[in-house]
């Protein structure tokens, strides 16, 4: 009897141990399920934020495209107006006039196409703005805190994601290559020294502004990562672009239109060694009368004896030999 009772007690203990193990496994599974649900909610929220950012970026790209189309349309309208003026003058209808008539019809067709494209882009933009507004106004799911000290990480993540996207878009320097191509095309379209100087100056200015813009983006990324505080972010400078003067001059020369000397006059503030505007102490070439930064000129003259603009000698070749040779 005693042995049977011991056996039953042992069997009962074994069953209890099995039940305890099953209960522990059930608790572990429930904990894992809760963690997975929290992770799913977090991933869904991040996905919505990314979709919103992508749509905003698409909208900004559409705006840029509209601006370019508007510039092209304005240029085409100017050409069309000039053609109309030439038609209104009492001249004989020759083969040359017939060619001009054909090019005018082509301009009208191009204007119609650009107008249709702009309307299509504007419709897309309205649709995108409505989608963005509906996403922004939709009730958000409450955030699942990862730790008691978590404040506003989602906002920080969103800002970090935005700046990272901007940095990625600048990584391959596509904008700088396009600017270089435009400057080189302008220089190849004219033999005037002033045109070459303006093209170089505008490119250096664009390159400097792009460098400043990229550095500011990287600094903001670093600030968010170090402080987790969006209020520490500084506003970005204006997006690098060519001046209106350069764009107008570019289109006029590309389209073989006449230009005046005042349009290509190079001011003393336009400096070609660095991209900083002329405000500090400067040196001037006696013959060319072009002003140069004292600091930049000092570095230049340590290597060369000549003026950085006109290449005339500024130093005695015997006292200051040319170090570049």
Topology record:
Blueprint: H1 2-88, H2 95-137, H3 153-171, H4 174-188, H5 193-227, H6 244-254, E1 282-284, E2 291-293, H7 294-303
Antiparallel strand pairs: 1-2
Helix pairs in contact: 1-2, 1-3, 3-5, 4-5
Describe this structure in words.
This protein is an all-alpha fold. It folds into 3 domains: 28-88 and 98-136; 170-266, no CATH class; 267-325, Herpes Virus-1. The chain contains 7 helices and 2 strands, in the order ααααααββα.
Task: List its traits.
325 residues; mainly alpha
**Strand elements, count:** 2
**Principal-axes shape call:** elongated
Radius of gyration: 34 Å
Mean pLDDT: 71
- How many helices? The count is 7
Largest sheet: 2 strands, antiparallel
Distance between the termini: 113 Å
Summed up, what is this model?
This protein is an all-alpha fold and 325 residues long. The chain is 68% helix and 2% strand. Strand 1 and strand 2 (291-293) form a beta hairpin.
């Amino acid at each position: 009897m005693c042995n049977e009772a011991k056996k039953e007690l042992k069997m009962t203990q074994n069953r209890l141990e099995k039940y305890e193990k099953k209960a522990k496994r059930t608790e572990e599974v429930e904990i894992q399920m809760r963690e997975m649900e929290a992770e799913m909610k977090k991933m869904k929220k991040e996905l919505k934020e990314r979709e919103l950012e992508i749509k905003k970026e698409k909208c900004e790209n559409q705006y840029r495209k509209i601006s370019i189309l508007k510039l092209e349309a304005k240029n085409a309208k100017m050409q069309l107006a000039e053609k109309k003026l030439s038609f209104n003058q009492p001249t004989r209808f020759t083969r040359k006039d017939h060619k001009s008539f054909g090019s005018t019809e082509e301009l009208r067709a191009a204007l119609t196409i650009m107008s249709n494209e702009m309307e299509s882009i504007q419709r897309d933009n309205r649709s995108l703005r409505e989608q963005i507004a509906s996403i922004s106004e939709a009730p958000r799911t409450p955030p699942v805190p990862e730790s008691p000290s978590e404040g506003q990480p989602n906002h920080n993540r969103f800002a970090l994601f935005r700046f990272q996207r901007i940095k990625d878009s600048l990584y391959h320097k596509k904008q700088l290559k396009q600017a270089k191509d435009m400057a080189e095309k302008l220089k190849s379209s004219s033999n005037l020294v002033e045109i070459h100087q303006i093209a170089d100056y505008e490119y250096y200015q664009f390159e400097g502004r792009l460098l400043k813009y990229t550095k500011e983006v990287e600094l903001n990324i670093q600030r968010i990562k170090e402080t987790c505080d969006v209020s520490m972010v500084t506003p970005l400078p204006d997006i690098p672009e060519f001046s209106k003067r350069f764009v107008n001059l570019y289109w006029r020369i590309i389209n073989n239109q006449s230009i005046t000397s005042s349009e290509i006059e190079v001011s003393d503030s336009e400096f070609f060694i660095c991209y900083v505007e002329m405000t500090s102490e400067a040196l001037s070439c006696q013959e060319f009368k072009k002003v140069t930064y004292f600091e930049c000129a000092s570095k230049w003259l340590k290597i060369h004896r000549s003026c950085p603009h006109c290449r005339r000698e500024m130093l005695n070749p015997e006292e200051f030999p040319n170090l570049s040779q």
